[in-house]
Amino acid sequence: MGKVAYITLYILVFSLLCTGYAGNVFAGMPEIHGFAEADFGLKIASDDTKRDDYNLFEQRLQLKSAYFFEGENLLVEKSAAVNFKADFVVDEYYSGKTSFDLRELNFSFTPFDFMDTKLGRQILTWGTGDYLFLNDLFPKDYISFFTGRDDEYLKKPSDGARIMLYPKHVNLDLVFIPIFEPNETPKGDRLSFFDSFQGGIAGRDSDRDISKPPRQIKNSVYAARAYRNFGSYEGALYLYRGFDPSPKSYKNEATRQLYYERLDAYGSSIRGPIFDGIGNAEVSYYYSPEDSKGNIRTVQNSMVKYLLGYEKDMGNDLRLGFQYMLEQTLNYKQYRNALLATDYSWDEFRHILTNRITKYFVNQTVKLSVFTFFSPSDMDAYTRPSVTWNITDAWTWTTGADLIWGKDDTTELGNMKKNKNIFTRVRYSF
Amino acid sequence: MKRSISYLLLGAFVLMLAVSTSFAQEFTVEQIVEKANLASYYAGNDGKSDVNMTITDSQGRTRKREFRILRLDIEDGKDQKFYVYFKKPSDVAKMVFMVWKHPDADDDRWLYLPALDLVRRIASSDKRSSFVGSHFLYEDVSGRGIDADTHALVDSSGDYYKIKNIPKSTKGVEFAYYFVWVDKANFLPMKAEYYNAQDELMRIIEALEVSEIKGHPTVVRSVAKDFERGGETLMEFNNIKYDNGLTEDIFTERYLRRAPIKWVK
Question: What pTM was computed for the model?
Answer without folding.
Answer: 0.89
